[in-house]
Amino acid sequence: MRWRGTSPRDWFLLLGSAAFVAAGLWGMSRGGDVSATIAATAFFGACGALAVHKIADKLAIQRVLDDPDFSPRIPGGVPLVATRRGVALASVGLVALGLLMASTGGAIGRGFVVVSLLMAGLGGVVLILIAVKRGHVQSLTFTPEGLRVRDGSLRYLAPWDGVSIELVTLFDQPFAAVYLRQVSAVLAAAEVTDGDPQRARKKLARRLESSRARGGSHLLFPGGLYGTDAATLMRTMAHYVDHPEARAELGATARTAPPEERSVETAR
Length: 268
What we know:
The chain is an alpha+beta fold.
């Protein structure tokens, strides 16, 4: 789905959560069951915080999209390396919230406790997956030829003259979306530093097709993963697609530059 900004559901979640938190605080002041009230208030407080975060992100993205003078660049093309710190922090918060709700929500019912423990377990599983993939590097490198994608041992190029860029929404989250006009050429030129190249290319082909079916584009990049919002990442890609003369500033050395964390620069 194409970008659609904030939705009534976001505001309903915020207002509904705020109402339940206010009711919980009022109940505690009236001397009700404190432990159960803490569990319910913690849950709705977390829902409210999530709603605030989503609305703030979407409004920031809309400001980027509405600014015709916003011209993001990444001189030198140094790799943008994926960071999982945000996901890790969210997972830690999920574990803490789940355990708090489970320890204080017994009076609400066994189902509430079970759901709370499942939340904590989900956060724990994500933390384990992050630890397991600690050595798995994902990065985007802007080069004069195109966007070079590294996914572990797999590397491939999305050429500027062979892609279309847009912002899409998937599962209510914004993504910088890249549509490949010649998938076969991208697959043929893909490189593998470890493992069977043929098997890796087949896996990449399945991944691209799955992404195309789900989101309408072959490559979907969540902005937060690369240190910026999805709209800025999308506008940066589009800048080099639409302005071939600007690609020279990316530099030939970008292909071999070691991955490091780098932010997108903007020029107005």
